[in-house]
């Protein structure tokens, strides 16, 4: 029980996790009392991001004052713009995932390995965000550090080489995410063929926010991955916006003949034009284990010029979205999630995503479209509409309208980006003095 409160600590911790990413709310929790601060600390420091040189000094000073903070972080992001001697930092033995961000022109594998060996010796997952790999050594030497490698994400990154690589052990890989990644030479495919991941549970092939997923045109990494992962795959995300429909269409039809005995969630992206995920759904054989079907829809705000896009979205529901078709393919289906989210390029991300009028209008259109399609009561009973932010976190409906500004300065110029770790350090020191 929290001191001076009837609120159990476990409940306070749940409240803190519910507000993960909401720095002002977590800040308020830290300022209530020392006990309430304790419930927010785990959420505040669960993910660290070193985005400026000063962040390393801030973190070093916080550890000197409170050494126990070193046991909290699980995920750390390091940007290209920062540098520090890894031997000056205390090892973070609890970190499981390391994210390397914004290295499109300056990736150095030797520096990354120094950090991994000294500071993150127990990490098993790695994400490359905006990284350009010009040769095989710069890619495989880092992956070889992870023993085992359980998670690999390539986000807006490029494998820009074709030479053969040393053999890596990918047999323990559990999660693979390719988002706007480029692997035109099939490098990753060759790695997976030489060391198939027998425990792959999550596979995400995405091309979001006007980006593209570049894969070899002559072979299909999608087919190979699905064939390898079919026995163990539990979650599959498929999206192929901004790609010609006929590209690798036959491959997806072939891949969709597979059965996934362990899969419980299938996530497909709906666009105003016919895309591969819908083709995949058309020829998908019965999948008795799937209990959740999620359809993700990227919406574009309420401006008049974007209304045709929104209307086209709702007319693009798969023709298989009927009781007979879904009962045939997913006999044990329990949930049909229609998830609406905004892209980074639309002002709706800051303004309209929580607006009552806009949300109610969009949801009414969805229900009207389902009624027009005569999907049946068996389907509508399972449908649930959700709104997500860009991090796939649920957005709750606010009590009132959101502000109509985008959070910039009065002169229209964007605010200077602040160090998140600096903000946390400041509130942490203030709360610590109470």
Give structural attributes.
single chain; 434 residues; alpha/beta; 13-stranded parallel sheet; globular; F-box domain-containing protein
Helical fraction equals: 25-40%
Beta-strand content bin: 15-25%
The span between the termini is: 20 Å
Overall mean pLDDT stands at 76
Q: Summarize the main sheet.
A: 13 strands, parallel
Count of DSSP strands: 13
How many helical stretches? 15
Q: If you compute it from the alpha carbons, what radius of gyration comes out, rounded to the nearest whole angstrom? A: 23 Å
Give me the strand/helix succession: HHHEHEEHEHEEEHEHEHEHEHHEHHEH
Q: Structural class given helices, strands, pairing? A: alpha/beta
Question: What would the principal axes of the Cα set say about the shape?
Answer: globular
Which segments are poorly predicted (pLDDT under 50) over 5 or more consecutive residues? 241-251, 347-352, 397-417
Characterise the protein shown here.
The structure is a single chain. By secondary structure, the protein is of the alpha/beta class. The chain has a domain at 231-402. Helix content is 33%, strand content 17%. Helix 2 (23-32) packs antiparallel against helix 3, helix 4 packs parallel to helix 15 and helix 9 (249-255) packs across helix 10. The chain starts with 8 loop residues before the first helix and ends with a helix. The model is unreliable at 241-251, 347-352 and 397-417 (pLDDT under 50).
Reconstruct the topology from this structure.
Blueprint: H1 9-18, H2 23-32, H3 34-46, E1 47-50, H4 53-65, E2 75-79, E3 97-103, H5 109-118, E4 125-133, H6 136-143, E5 151-155, E6 158-159, E7 175-179, H7 187-194, E8 202-206, H8 221-229, E9 235-238, H9 249-255, E10 265-270, H10 276-282, E11 292-299, H11 307-314, H12 323-329, E12 335-342, H13 356-373, H14 377-380, E13 383-388, H15 420-432
Parallel strand pairs: 1-2, 2-3, 3-4, 4-5, 4-6, 5-7, 7-8, 8-9, 9-10, 10-11, 11-12, 12-13
Helix pairs in contact: 1-3, 2-3, 2-15, 4-15, 5-6, 8-9, 9-10
């Amino acid at each position: 029980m929290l001191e001076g409160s009837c609120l159990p600590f476990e409940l306070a911790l749940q409240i803190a996790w519910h507000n993960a990413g909401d720095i002002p709310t977590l800040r308020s929790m830290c300022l209530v009392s020392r006990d309430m601060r304790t419930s927010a600390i785990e959420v505040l420091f669960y993910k660290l991001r070193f985005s400026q040189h000063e962040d390393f000094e801030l973190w070093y000073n916080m550890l000197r004052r409170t050494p126990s903070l070193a046991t909290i972080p699980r995920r750390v992001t390091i940007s290209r713009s920062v540098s520090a001697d890894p031997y000056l930092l205390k090892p973070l033995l609890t970190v499981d995932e390391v994210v390397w961000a914004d290295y499109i022109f300056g990736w150095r594998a030797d520096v990354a390995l120094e950090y991994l060996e000294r500071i993150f010796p127990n990490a098993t997952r790695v994400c490359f965000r905006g990284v350009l790999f010009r040769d095989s050594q710069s890619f495989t030497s880092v992956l070889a550090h992870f023993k085992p490698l359980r998670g690999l994400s390539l986000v807006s990154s490029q494998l820009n080489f074709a030479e053969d690589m040393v053999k890596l052990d990918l047999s323990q890989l559990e999660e693979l995410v390719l988002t706007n990644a480029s692997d035109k030479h099939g490098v990753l495919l060759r790695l997976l063929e030489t060391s198939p991941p027998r425990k792959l549970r999550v596979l995400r092939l995405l091309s979001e926010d006007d980006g593209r997923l570049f894969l070899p045109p002559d072979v299909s990494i999608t087919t190979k991955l699905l064939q390898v992962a079919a026995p163990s795959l539990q979650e599959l995300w498929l999206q192929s916006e901004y790609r010609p429909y006929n590209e690798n269409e036959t491959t997806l039809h072939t891949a969709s003949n597979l059965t996934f005995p362990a899969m419980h969630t299938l996530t497909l992206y709906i666009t105003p034009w016919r895309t591969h995920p819908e083709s995949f759904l058309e020829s998908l054989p019965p999948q008795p284990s799937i209990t959740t079907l999620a359809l993700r829809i990227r919406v574009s705000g309420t401006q008049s010029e974007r209304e045709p896009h929104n209307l086209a979205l709702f007319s693009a529901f798969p023709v298989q979205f009927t009781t007979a078709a879904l009962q045939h393919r997913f006999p044990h289906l329990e949930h049909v999630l229609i998830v609406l989210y905004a892209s980074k390029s639309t002002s709706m991300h800051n303004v309209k995503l929580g607006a009552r009028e806009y949300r109610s209008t969009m949801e009414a259109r969805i229900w009207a479209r389902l009624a027009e399609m005569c999907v049946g009561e068996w389907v509508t009973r399972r449908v649930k509409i959700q709104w997500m932010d860009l991090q796939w976190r649920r957005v709750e409906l606010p009590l009132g309208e959101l502000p109509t500004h985008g959070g910039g300065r009065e002169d229209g110029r964007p605010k200077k980006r602040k160090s998140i770790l600096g903000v946390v350090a400041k509130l942490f020191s203030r709360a610590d003095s109470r």
